[in-house]
Amino acid sequence: MKSPYNEESDKSFLCNNLVSLELRQRMVKCYVWSVFLYSVEVWTLKISIMNKTKALEMWVHRRILMIPWTARKTNKEVLRSVNKHRELLKTVKHRKMSYLGNIVRESRYKI
After folding, report:
1. pTM for this structure?
2. Does pLDDT of 19 surpass 90?
């Protein structure tokens, strides 16, 4: 079996077909999403930020599957092929609501 870490290869780890799709998705969740979600609780969610978040999620899925930008695949087809739903924006909203709950429970904000 060939090693996914090959110095001659110009493909990144996430675009390597020798690594299973499930492992590549877990690596994205571990390294990419964790960096993206750092201190997301204090963001102001605007429509433009939500659209960019959706676009980032779809871009990463397309990179994992090595779908070229010229391919005419809809976002639904891409999500179906990776067996995922859109989860990044839901995670952002959930973290913001959890943070709000923590702030409201503080003693100085008692009603």
Report:
1. 0.78
2. no
